[in-house]
Each structure stands twice: as structure tokens, then as C-alpha cells.
Amino acid sequence: IQIRVDNKLKEDVSAIYDQLGLDLSTAVRIFFKRTVAEQGIPFTMKLNYDGKRSYARKRISQDVILAMKAMSDSAEENGVSDLTLDEINAEIQSARKGR
């Protein structure tokens, strides 16, 4: 999966995930797993009073941080929180072969 984001957003997100003990790949995989488990976005999406989506706020909401913590806990429970880049790539290759 390739995702285009600006450098500032990537740096901000990486700093948060680093504090949670996650790299970007693990965080995205956790997000996907929680999306499946929740059958939807695993946090509330709201509009601010000015009509802008909440992700535009400079400060990340507590809901998102709690969702990320839940995803981190889920990764721990499922034994995927400590995967190396090589292990992640091996999982990707295995999934692609299974198509």
C-alpha cells in the first residue's frame, strides 16, 4: 500500500506512534485490524463548529489517541507488535501469493 501524505503530517504521526512504541507500518496494520473488528472507522469522526473535519485540528483528539492505544494493545494480543520490516514484507508476499 502506498499512501501520499505531506512530510509534516508524517513527522507528526511518526512522533505519536513512536511514543506508543509503533512504527508506521505496524500502526497502519493495527488500524486495518481494528477497522475489521469494529466494522468501520475505529474512532468517531466529527465536524468542528467551522465545518472543518476534526483531523484538521492541530491537536490530536483524545479519541484518536485512545483508539491508537487500543490498536497497540490488540497488536500485542495478536503477537504482531514486534514485527521487523523483513517479517512485514514476508507477510505481504505471503498474502499476495494467496490471492
Structure, described:
- By secondary structure, this protein is mainly alpha-helical.
- The protein has one domain.
- Helix content is about 60%, strand content about 0%.
- The protein contains 4 helices and no strands.
- Helix 2 packs across helix 3 (about 60-75).
- It is globular.
- It starts with 6 loop residues before the first helix and ends with a helix.
What can be said about this structure in brief?
The protein has helices at 7-19, 24-38, 62-77, 85-97. With 99 residues, the chain is an all-alpha fold.
Largest beta-sheet details = none
Radius of gyration: 15 Å
Continuous helix count: 4
H and E string: HHHH
What class, by secondary structure content?
mainly alpha
Give average pLDDT, whole number. 80
Keywords:
0% strand, mainly alpha, 99 residues, globular
Summarize the topology.
Layout: H1 7-19, H2 24-38, H3 62-77, H4 85-97
Helix pairs in contact: 2-3
